[in-house]
Write a structure and sequence with these properties.
This protein is an all-alpha fold. It is built from 9 helices and no strands. It is 75% helix and 0% strand.
């Protein structure tokens, strides 16, 4: 199983490199946005008054809800599994797992970072660690969960396997567009700062990519490659 071992090693290397890159990029962007860009970008988005904005916000918040997305993906995973559409079943399984892991990771990070939501304190630097005791006492713990955006992280993680697995250009474009509706909705409702959204997008994409690669590199998906390698060795 030389090919399988090489693919596993390659995947681990990609994940390690990607994770380090995401962490470094997230820290740089978080620093930049917290000090200079979060407030002006938020104000710009909130100033949009087009008639369709309210509709997009409702749709974005709905499809980004963890339970709604979970039930949707679970339904299509079970449907494709029962109908024995193996490739599609694996894709929906990867999407389902990605969304679950993204949801868990986002909740853990929220508990660690403890950033106050902008709707409560209009200060991008309102992290629990830097707040005065008098201010902390007035804030409920359940609003210190702004970074990262759970809705955004989950929807991006779920859509990545679907995007990478479909060949239909229209469907691919739609699946790319949908997560950004959720990201916009979370910004417009002042539930998150732009930096919360950006970090959620980066982490969501990374998680979705990892599960997509795992599907591609499963032993049953490379039997043909292994058989081909053996045939080549016979003729050498």
């Amino acid at each position: 199983m030389d090919i399988y071992q090489r693919l596993c090693a390659s995947l681990q290397k990609k994940v390690s490199t990607g994770l380090i890159g995401i962490i470094v990029l997230s820290l740089i962007l978080m620093f930049f946005f917290c000090f200079w860009a979060d407030k002006p970008v938020s104000q710009l988005i909130r100033s949009l008054t087009y008639s369709y904005v309210a509709f997009l916000v409702k749709i974005g918040n709905f499809i980004g809800d963890g339970w709604v997305l979970f039930l949707f993906l679970l339904f299509f995973y079970l449907l494709t599994f029962l109908l024995k559409f193996e490739k599609k079943s694996k894709v929906f399984k990867a999407s389902l797992y990605s969304s679950i892991v993204a949801g868990i990771v986002s909740q853990v990070l929220k508990l660690i970072i403890k950033r106050c939501r902008p709707v409560i304190l209009n200060d991008p630097l309102a992290f629990s660690y830097f707040l005065d005791v008098s201010v902390k006492n007035k804030i409920h713990g359940d609003v210190l969960n702004s970074m990262p955006s759970g809705h955004t992280m989950v929807i991006f993680a779920a859509c990545v396997p679907l995007v990478l697995s479909t060949k239909n250009k229209f469907l691919k474009a739609l699946l790319i567009f949908i997560p950004f509706i959720t990201a916009f909705a979370r910004l417009y409702t002042y539930a998150h700062w732009p930096s919360d959204i950006i970090i959620a997008i980066l982490l969501g994409i990374l998680i979705g990519y990892i599960f997509t690669e795992k599907i591609k590199n499963k032993p049953e998906n490379i039997h043909a490659a292994v058989a081909a390698q053996r045939r080549i060795k016979i003729f050498m």
